[in-house]
Amino acid sequence: MSRPEQQAPVNPVGIHAGVWVGDWSPASAEYAIRESAQAGFDLIEIPVRDPRTTDLPLTRRLLAEHGLDAVVSLALGADFDINTEDATVSARGEQLLEDAVTFAREIGATYIGGVLYSKMAKYSSPATTASRDNSLAVLRRVAAQADDHGIRLGMEYVNRYESNLLNTAVQTVDFIRELGADNVLLHIDTFHANLEEADQASAVRDAGDLLGYIHAAENHRGYLGSGSIDWSNLFRQLVLSGYTGPITFESFSSDVVTQETADDIGLWRNLWNDPADLARSANLFLRSNLDVAFRAHAGASARPLVSTP
Amino acid sequence: MAINKLGVHALVFSGGTTPDEVEYTVGEAKKAGYDILEMSLHDAVNLDVASAKAALDAAGLDIVCSRGLAFDADVSSSDPATVARGAKLLQDSLQITADLGGTHFTGALYSALGKYGQPLSSAGRANVVSVLQDLAQEAQTKGMTLGLEVCNRYETNVINTASQALTLADDIGEDNVLIHLDSYHMNIEEDDFVRPILLAGDRLGYIHVGENHRGYLGSGHLDFTSFFHALAQIGYAGAITFESFSSAVVSPTLSNDLAIWRNLWNDGPALARHAHAYMSNMLEANRGDL
User: Fold this and answer.
1) Are B190 and A228 inside 8 Å of each other by CB?
2) Largest CA distance in chain B
3) What pLDDT score was predicted for residue B252?
4) Any bridge partners for residue B112, and if so which?
5) Quick check: A283 and A15 in contact, CB under 8 A?
6) Is the CB of residue B103 less than 8 Å from the CB of residue B145?
7) Which of A146, A205, B76, B169 could be disulfide-bonded to B124 (CB atoms 3.0-4.6 Å)?
8) What is the DSSP code string of A199-259?
9) Is residue B140 over pLDDT 90?
10) Mutate to test the interface with B, among A268, A269, A270, A272 (most CBs of B within 10 A)
11) How far apart are CA B288 and CA B290, in angstroms?
12) Which of B161, B221, B261 is the closest to A198 by Cβ?
């Protein structure tokens, strides 16, 4: 069997809308999409908004106008937790996940990633078998609904302070296998992997063929390359694994995000205040790291370089 | 030979502080080769101080006490009653440390150990400074030092970097308030593992060595080579204490606060021996006699 000869990286390089804006008003949508395209990105990640009150056709039109793909992200809040034995809270969470499917479908996105399996918050006790089973049951139903619209779900595991359910790639692989839906993938965020994994490369290896999405964030969530994450360790393994999916930059400043978001994620220090400069720097950083990792390993892929759809 | 004393956190061995548990912990720390036992005072109400001191003395182990505060007893609050409860906890803990024979009391002495829902207020920060000035002066009369442990964003909103800790220590303005760096927290907040140590310099008073996931040293990705090089470069002669947590050893008060959901090891004594050898090797290789 012949191996496809790949001459250059094909991964879409993305940026989180939170670099630009803290809401999704028409003006914010226009600004974030235009700036993302101008900074050289292929893709913008848009946190889900209420599909009933958001101008979804506008977002779709702006994306087309600027030639940008979109993915949708979501992190369940405490009142919407599905990793729970409380049926009322779980039902609210399931409704929010269904809304996310609607939102994604209407703006033309085919991927919803994030903390979809639990609340994103510090738990005060370990997860129980019953709460985990509830999360799996809800996600099976949402995955089936998403699949009807060609939408995939990404399970983004996070650090111990943001969930008690999925903190590593290995735990997430087990969870996805048990969930048993083909359109559910694994989502690595380097900021979280930095706390929990042996190293970045081993997270990629553990994820294996389930890997569907990467969040690239520095250890302190500031400028890429200004912290301690071992980027070449990550990128070389991505190339070796034949990963061709998106790599999306994530960083937050209290200059941009809402106070509520800043409080949720523990953003007590401001690491930047010029989003355009930050974005240009990140785009350059991700593409050049990908390029040199590809050169380092060209022709040495451990498995055929398959494209994720 | 390295001049630093090596310590180990009690939660490597036991989650509780009954006399039997303390005796077991002291014995295992000694057997693994350590000079210091660090005990968290989260469970201090259940601690029998006299019997713990007897066990420490019998083993010839030094003691360092640590703690964080609680949201209802928090000196970084702007509510006077909450601040007063936090100050009382600190005073009681300082006394317990002294009664155990310790001279160093450290940790998140300036806030609750937990995820805050809002940034630190200026009134809250002023309360931290004022309470810790008083505590430092009291400690001075006992010949004791206080450590400001720099913790990550999920465990405090007061100081997340060495630079912020130095500013806080400047504002407190007492010579017996030193900086406590922890490699686990540095991995989340600092640019690297060298500059914070150089920045703290001779004001560095205590070190926690912990892997990025808080498991076996060397089984994660922290750059301990650079970390120990930097300690040698500033001539750090203070204590270096190993810290690790697993769901195999549960403290009813501390494990959930620290979000210990995963099992990273089962055998505390084996882990402690490994860490002692690991740190000794690092110190030996970086003696600074170049």
Assistant:
1) yes
2) 54
3) 78
4) B69
5) yes
6) yes
7) B76
8) -HHHHHHHHGGGEEEEEE--TTSSSTTSSS--HHHHHHHHHHTT--S-EEE----TTTS-H
9) yes
10) A268
11) 5
12) B221
Is A45 an annotated catalytic residue?
A: no
- A228 Cβ under 8 Å from any chain B Cβ: yes
- Kindly report the average pLDDT of chain A as a whole number: 94
Which tokens belong to B279? 């740190």
- For residue B119, give both structure tokens: 């940034």
Residue type for A115, please? V
Contact B243, B209 (CB under 8 A): yes
Rounded to whole angstroms, how far apart are CA atoms B200 and A35? 40
Round the CA-based radius of gyration of chain B to a whole number and report it: 18
Partners of B63 in beta bridges? B37
Give Cβ neighbours of residue B192 (< 8 Å, ≥ 6 apart).
A227, A228, B223, B226
- DSSP sequence for A33-80: HHHHHHTT-SEEEEE---TTTS-HHHHHHHHHHHT-EEEEEEEE-GGG
pLDDT at A97: 98
pLDDT of residue B46: 84
Instruction: Output the CA torsion sign for A226, A227, A233, A234.
Output: negative
Whether A276 shows a pLDDT value over 90: the answer reads: yes
% residues pLDDT > 90 (chain B):
92
CB of A81 within 8 Å of any CB in chain B? no
Q: How many residues does chain A have?
A: 309
